Task: inverse folding
């Protein structure tokens, strides 16, 4: 049974940082591309970033480029999202997703459907 679990969310002041983590079990981690998505109340889910199988390719939505960094540690079966210079508009529930097709571009531009999803972790940014 596949399980995807996010952690690391919390409350931070604008300008602060958080690091999200996502662990996945029950699948061959190295064979999956991984992505981060977010959804704020009343808004559609948006793609934030994705990373290819071997971490050789990473893509970001324009809204987070230069502030967020995605990475993966296949030995630990863990995906990360380092978020710096957080803004109030970054406040959302953040979800991790895994899919077999590789990540080919920013997930807000190139479809990343995600075969497996976590339950999300809340990020709150106070101004």
Result:
């Amino acid at each position: 049974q596949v399980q995807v679990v996010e952690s690391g969310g919390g409350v931070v002041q604008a300008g602060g940082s958080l690091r999200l983590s996502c662990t996945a079990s029950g699948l061959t981690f190295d064979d999956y591309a991984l992505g981060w998505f977010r959804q704020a109340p009343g808004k559609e889910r948006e793609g934030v970033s994705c990373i290819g199988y071997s971490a050789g390719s990473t893509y970001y939505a324009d809204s987070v480029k230069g502030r967020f960094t995605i990475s993966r540690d296949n030995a630990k079966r863990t995906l990360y999202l380092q978020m710096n210079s957080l803004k109030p508009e970054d406040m959302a529930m953040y979800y991790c997703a895994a899919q077999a097709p590789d990540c080919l571009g920013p997930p807000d531009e190139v479809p990343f459907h995600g075969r497996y999803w976590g339950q999300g972790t809340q990020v709150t940014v106070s101004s």
Observations:
- DSSP finds no helices and eleven strands in the chain.
- The two ends are 40 Å apart (CA to CA).
